[in-house]
Amino acid sequence: MPNTLAVTLDDVLAAREVLADVLTPTPMELSRALSDRTGLEVHLKCENLQRAGSFKMRGAYTRMSRLTEEERSRGVVAASAGNHAQGVALAARLLGIEATVYMPHGAAMPKLAATRGYGATVIQVGTTIDECISEALRHEAETGAVFVPPFDHKDIVAGQGTCGLEILEQVPDVRTILVCTGGGGLLAGIAAAVKALRPDVKVVGVQAAEAAAWPASLAAGHPVPVSSMSTMADGIAVGRPGDVPFGVVAELVDGMETVGEDSIARAVLQLVERAKLVVEPAGAAATAHLMDLGQEAAERYEGPVVAVLSGGNIDPLLLLRILRTGLTVAGRYLQLRVRVPDRPGELAAVLTMLAEQSCNVLEVQHHRRVQGLKVSEVSISMTLETSGHDHSARVVQALRDRGYTVDPL
């Protein structure tokens, strides 16, 4: 039976030749922490360390390198929340092409700055990738610039698929590959490469639950847009799967999973703390899925497992907020309100008791004007640093054993 897929292994191999002098394989790191957590051998494919900070350079350069001289003279236009923008901007600089990129309001400042730094003209419109795509297509129609889509083109998918070739070479006995998924370009490319060479390898996409267009689309048999999205993982916040990736994913991919916002935050923290890798929320989705499963991962998947870290372009301020959320989810921040008798020395007694419980007190606020308080009471709001959920539970119980009323914040 002839291969009717939009992207084949030959396409990916051809893309690899195009990229040979531009990109080098990104590192593959064994994660002892995730391996211990899941009972599987887990490796991390570090596309966060790729040129321009994500896998997007693979597809963008592949597509743009194949433009004719006449097309190059007209320039290119793209739409992106950041990673594709940087990939297009860098590829354009390397190829000597003028680039205009539409980015949403609210895009991370480092992504905006990097895109401009590579020489592209940045125009901010709307709040979603889909709105930016609409404006980029209008720009194409009005100016003749060539639209370089973020995922919905054969050359883009083929370029992203070179990541799959590297995975097979770096972990030859891999059995499962987990891929962060938005429009589907990376997932489709990896699947096209991997399934042609190793059909026994399971390839699974992972989406942010608050921007998950793929499960409903796969169930319907065609791309279905989501009505709304709200996720910190802006890099995979795509309202509708691409038509080109959809055919490949529907044919080859073994499953599609979703992860919540708290799980993503916890995964970003895990990667910073244990793997020493800065990864943006979109790039941590596959890791979040493994962390959600824990020891159940060994029942779902065969190892070795490769989790793709698709990007590392994150605003430091967002990273700070995410790390705080991750610490809270992991039980490392404990926020509570304690009602104590309003008498001299009581606050000192509470703080002394917390020191005895090996807590680090980060913030303390003393309130007398709180609804529901008795005249003889005060309320103390505290943020504490603990070693985890068990430690937090012991601290709360110790406070209650002393007779204090304790409420979580």
> Spatial order of the strands in the main sheet?
1-2-10-7-8-9
- Silhouette: elongated
Q: Tell me the CATH topology of the largest domain.
A: Rossmann fold
User: How would a textbook summarize the main sheet?
Assistant: 6 strands, mixed
Strand content: 15-25%
Overall mean pLDDT score?
Answer: 92
CATH class of the largest domain, named: Alpha Beta
What is the β-strand count? 14
Number of spatially distinct domains: 3
What's the Cα radius of gyration?
24 Å
Describe the structure.
By secondary structure, the chain is an alpha/beta fold. It folds into 3 domains: 9-55 and 154-327, 3-Layer(aba) Sandwich (Rossmann fold); 56-147, 3-Layer(aba) Sandwich (Rossmann fold), CATH 3.40.50.1100; 331-408, Alpha-Beta Plaits (2-Layer Sandwich), CATH 3.30.70.260. It has helices at residues 9-19, 32-38, 56-65, 69-73, 83-95, 109-117, 129-143, 154-170, 185-197, 214-220, 243-252, 261-273, 285-293, 297-300, 316-329, 346-356, 389-401; strands at residues 28-30, 42-46, 76-79, 99-103, 121-124, 146-147, 176-180, 202-208, 255-259, 305-309, 333-341, 360-367, 377-385, 405-408. The strands form 3 sheets. The chain has a 6-stranded mixed beta sheet with strand order 1-2-10-7-8-9. The chain has a 4-stranded parallel beta sheet with strand order 5-4-3-6, sandwiched between helices. It has a 4-stranded antiparallel beta sheet with strand order 12-13-11-14. Strand 3 (76-79), helix 5 (83-95) and strand 4 form a beta-alpha-beta unit. The chain is elongated, with a radius of gyration of 24 Å.
